[in-house]
Amino acid sequence: MIATIVVVGTIIDPFAASKASSSGVADGADPTGLFTVARQDLSEQTEVSATLGYAGSYSAVNQVQGTVTALPAVGQIITQGQVLYQVSGAPVVLLYGSTPAYRSLSEGMTGTDVAELNADLVDLGYVTKTEVPSGADDFTYWTKVGVEKLQATRGVTETGTLSLGQAMFEPTAVRVTSLSATLGAPAQPGQSVLSATSTTRQVSIALDASEQSEVAVGDNVTITLPNNEINPGVISSVGTVATAPASGSSNSSPTITVLVNPTDPTATGTWDQAPVEVTITTGTVTNALVVPVDALLAQAGGGYALEVVGANDIHHLEPITLGLFDDADGLVQVTGTGLAVGQRVVVPEL
User: Fold this and answer.
1) Which of 37, 187, 237, 283 lies 20 to 30 Å from 344 when distance is taken between CA atoms?
2) How remote is the C-alpha of 29 from its chain's centroid?
3) Where are the alpha helices (DSSP H) in the chain?
4) How many CB atoms within 10 Å of residue 41?
5) Is residue 6 part of a domain?
6) Same domain assignment for residues 153 and 180
């Protein structure tokens, strides 16, 4: 269980005081009070450190030889059909797709890269879905027409062939994080030009691998931002491969990566690689009998009990079984054959 459970130590003489005062009971030298057993919903939560940033990591690799003549600014967002950078005055356009550009594309060819190109041309409005049906993976006359329109928009010769180096496929719009090329410097095939992320806000948690079973995709969380504002989120991914701690790290246990999508990304601002706290709800229970955690009495023979104040203010120990812990409110779910709503139990007074 992720939650840390802290309970009161074994009671030596639970019946040292058998009469309740107006403020509670006096158990030995320590002042005590009374809590009325109630039913309510509980949530079990844990708080972990995390990092707020952007999803994905992309690298733009140049594919033509020449001179770098234009670069984007760090932080700039580039979307489908826009120019990533230029080599010898020729633009390299961003297109969407998971298959990277690895060849020139022309009429008569087929493949997943052609299917990506077709979808992009439709999205950009250069052809219609009637001309290029959804999912089409062949380079047709209409694909050629769409490429010519794309080339015309970018001011290059309208060949109708998408030459290697004219476009770069990435899964989504990119946000430039660093530049590895320099204006005026030679551009070589295979050379990294820039690094980027997506524009999707995401929180990354390095969770202790032993706690993997405590979280699941779809679990609701709350994210405490650097300015202490709280925003909701949902776990989108739970890693399955543990990573050993880095040399010199204060954490000595292997971790897995847990990713969280903020429910309202715009509310998370523009922080990048910012430290945040994430509160994960690891369990819920409805209509449970609850008492304060401080009311628990660890028994010498094992298990727990409550000091119940019954009729005529007579105290007795009631054995109970523990359920869900709500650390945020300091409550715990309990069950016991002699326990019922409305009974009074002894708790320490702060």
Assistant:
1) 283
2) 48
3) 112-123, 141-153
4) 13
5) no
6) no
Distance CA 49, CA 18 (A): 46
Q: pLDDT band at residue 249, thresholds of 50, 70 and 90? A: low
187-203 per-position pLDDT tens digit: 999 999 999 999 999 99
Which band of pLDDT confidence, cut at 50, 70 and 90, is reported for residue 9?
Answer: very low
For residue 299, being part of any structural domain is answered with: yes
Alpha-carbon distance of 79 to 85, in angstroms, equals: 13
Burial 203-233 (b: 16+ CB within 10 A, else e): bbbbbbbebbebbeeebebbbbbeeeeebeb
Instruction: Identify each DSSP E strand in 239-314 by its residue range.
Output: 255-262, 274-292, 297-298, 304-309
Distances (CA, A) of 169 to 67, 122, 173, 248: 21, 15, 10, 38
pLDDT of 211? 86
In single-letter form, the type of residue at position 348 comes to P
> Would you say residue 94 has pLDDT above 80?
yes
Query: How many whole angstroms separate alpha carbon 108 and alpha carbon 102?
Result: 17
Residues 6+ apart with CB under 8 A from 7: 293, 296, 297, 298, 304
User: Given CA atoms 290, 293, 297, 302 in this order, what sign does their dihedral have?
Assistant: positive
Let me know if residue 15 belongs to a domain: no
Q: How far apart are CA 341 and CA 208, in angstroms?
A: 38
Q: Are residues 206 and 279 in the same domain?
A: yes
Residue-number span of the structural domain to which 40 is assigned: 20-44+284-348
> Which residues on adjacent β-strands are paired with residue 288?
40
What predicted TM-score, i.e. pTM, was given to this entire model? 0.72
3-state secondary structure of 95: strand
Q: Quick one: which H or E segment has residue 192?
A: strand 192-197
178 and 86 inside one domain:
yes
> What DSSP line would sit under 15-63, residue for residue?
TS---EETTEEEETTEEEEEEE-EEEEEEEEEEEEEEEEES--EEEE--
Q: Which helix (H) or strand (E) holds 9?
A: none
Q: Is the pLDDT of residue 288 over 90?
A: yes
